[in-house]
Design goal:
five-stranded mixed β-sheet; alpha/beta; six-stranded mixed β-sheet; 3 domains; 11 helices; globular; D-Maltodextrin-Binding Protein, domain 2
Length: 270
């Protein structure tokens, strides 16, 4: 009788705890179908919002984490807090050895032409001698700003300066321009304090600028700075990333880009 009671109690105990063991497995399976991606708001998070339902139909819950700087999304991805991020180009990714050793481009989506903006002057010719120009403080985008100025005959860089040129590589500066380096996200707000600022396309859009109409000078549509989706090395073929790629490189997204940014301030590469 005692053995029977003991067996009954044991079976009852197993029945009670079975759901507790089953739920973690279910939660774990569910977690595999969540895709957490860090992005700057415009246009990256905006584009991702458009494909949430497309991924949901495939059993993937897309979670978008907004960032307003260019450092945290890579740091979070390296730590494993994100599955991917969408905000940068390859020269920026390769500007940091820790990032480039752990992360890789999964695919490219669009280009945001980089421009020079001013609240004080209407044309590049109006900028006076000794003017103060703000440029991004990260190597790849700082170099991009200087290359833009060089392409428009404003400065000359030494041979071989490359994509990460700095102000110390300037060999000719007829207007004796002065440069200040700021975090990329701060550049639109700096326009009250400087004569002009070289601003990334996404931050220009976020600040309400029309890059083609409001910039004094701007990159051409053939810019090599393609914005990419980045993942940890080895995750490029993750089915969730492949589903994300198919959704982002769709006619739906291309049509949206062409309609929303018909002025060429965002250009699809597919």
């Amino acid at each position: 009788m005692k053995k029977f009671i003991g067996l009954a109690v044991g079976l009852l105990f197993l029945a009670l705890i079975q759901p507790a063991f089953a739920n973690p497995q279910k939660d774990s399976e569910g977690a595999k179908q969540t895709l957490k991606i860090g992005a700057t708001p415009v246009p990256h998070a905006e584009l991702l919002d458009l494909i949430k339902d497309d991924l949901k139909a495939q059993g993937i819950a897309l979670e978008i984490v907004d960032y307003n700087d260019y450092v945290q999304p890579n740091e979070a991805l390296v730590r494993g807090d994100l599955d991917a991020n969408f905000f940068q180009h390859i020269p920026y990714l390769e500007s940091n050895a820790e990032w480039s050793s752990a992360l890789v481009s999964a695919f490219g989506v669009h280009i945001e032409p980089f421009g020079l903006y001013s609240k004080k002057y209407k044309t590049i010719a109006d900028i006076p001698d000794g003017a103060l120009i703000a440029i991004p403080n990260d190597p790849s985008n700082g170099g991009r700003a200087l290359l833009l100025l060089q392409a428009n005959g404003i400065i000359t860089l030494k041979d071989g300066a490359g994509l990460e040129a700095t102000r110390f590589d300037i060999v000719s500066n007829p207007k004796n321009l002065q440069f200040t380096e700021l975090e990329a996200a701060q550049l639109p707000r700096s326009l009250d304090d400087v004569d002009a600022a070289a601003i990334n396309g996404n931050y220009a859009l976020q600040a309400g600028f029309n890059p083609l109409k409001d910039s004094l000078i701007i990159e051409g549509s053939q810019s090599p700075y393609v914005n990419i989706v980045v993942v940890k090395k080895g995750a490029e073929n993750d089915p969730r990333i492949q589903a994300l790629k198919k959704a982002l490189l769709s006619q739906k997204i291309k049509d949206y880009i062409n309609k929303t940014w018909s002025d060429g301030s965002v250009v699809a590469i597919f």
